[in-house]
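Deliverable D5.2: sample structural annotation.
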Amino acid sequence: MKAGIIDILLDAFGWVGGKAALFYLAIFTGAGMGALALLAGMKVGKGFDYPITGDNPIAQAAPGFVVGVPQFALLFGVALWWVRSEKVGVRSWAVIAGVEAALVTLFLLPGISGVFPLIVTMTVLIAETVILAKGVIAFRVLQVRRWEEDAAARLVENAHRREDLLARFGTVNSSAADLGIS
């Protein structure tokens, strides 16, 4: 069946839209991880008190610039790479989420006062990152197992098909393993 221009456009925009949705999910996951780490430090300490000095409006807005400008630069660069690359996957998603979590936590870390709350914040961030990495590894293992099971099933189907061809037509078909290729 021949695909029409509408089908081609829907596939293209759906692919880019799906990749963009996964990118935003990685950003929100990372921001949430960073926020949870900061929240844990705030609960242990005296709350959140970002150091703002002076009555200057620019100095009062500085935390927004300090957090916003590097975040925007990171997001813009990574978004371009993410949408244009065909090699992004689960690991790339986890790296983006981990870097976002680290940036959120590190840029807002001056608002946590005390050594123990800082230790708790960083410990929670590291634990979240390890959990994210373990989840990605578990997902990859699941994918590889599914691929192996599918390949084994196809090998069995191909062997049955070769036997059927031999019985019906007397045709000898060789597999790649028979030829020493695989």
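Annotation notes: The mean pLDDT is 83. Helices lie at 5-44, 57-84, 90-108, 115-169.
The annotation will be released with the project's public dataset once the embargo ends.
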